[in-house]
Amino acid sequence: MTEAAGLDEVHHIIEAFTGRAREELADRLKKWPLDLAKRELHEVVGALLARQVTLASQLAACPPIWNGHIAPLVLRAMADAYITLAWILKEPLDRCRKFIHYGLGQEKLQLEHRRAEMEAREPHDGEREYCDAVEAWINSQRATFLTDVNLGSWSGMSTRDMAAEAECLDFYNYVYAPFSPCGHSMWQHIARYNLKECRNPLHRFHWVPTVRDVPLDPDYLYLAAKYLQKTFAVFDGAVGIATDIESAFDVLCLGLDRLGTAGSTAQPDEPPGVDYGNGKSGGDE
Ligand SMILES: [Zn+2]
Description:
Elements: H1 3-31, H2 39-61, H3 71-88, H4 92-118, H5 127-139, H6 159-165, H7 169-183, H8 187-193, E1 195-197, E2 207-209, H9 219-239, H10 248-259, H11 277-280
Helix pairs in contact: 1-2, 1-9, 1-10, 2-3, 2-4, 2-9, 3-6, 3-7, 3-9, 4-5, 6-7, 9-10
The structure holds zinc ion.
Zinc ion (ZN) binds next to loops.
């Protein structure tokens, strides 16, 4: 395959995947009978499903970010959304309300910080209007004076405990946790991706900062599709919905197989391996 034909094929695979992901979401929403007495359930769960489709599609559409610098940021957000959804679905209505309540409390807190900060200076153009609009958005769901601010986690427990309760501790251990260092720019990530060995032998091989070019790896797209599939599956199981259209995940796998790249570097549930080459060669002591 020529380079141009290869790029064309990648483009087709991306379009097929993102298109099917939207169709899969639409099919499920169509089959999920709306119960307005449980509107929070439909809003939160539906939005989390749509969020996963959005994240997977955005990653798919941007091949330049299929690398260890950026892709884990997206995949970690998908892992977060998956655990949130899986935990919510164990006691859906109550947990959806808690989720909304916490989010509104956080929004109210930020609004108060901003207004307090504005008191000491002249507001920028439109700043007051912006604050009023945020307040109106909160009030449209729940009056601001009723929205107490909870400073803990929204669920009242750690993500690990949520994952354990939602029976997806493996997902936490092998997906959520390994992608966290990139998401939080922790040492174990930046040492590998943003340091290289100094070549001056008098410097005892210390490491110096670098902005590394890293190769693209379609496996990151494969993982995004896999987490999307897991998200749909946990929803289907909890809500009792079956869809008969071929999944976006399968569509993607077929496409990647044609390109000969599926599963190139990673185990199914694990992030792609890191190339230590430029960052740490001979630098373990
Ligand atoms: Zn040096």
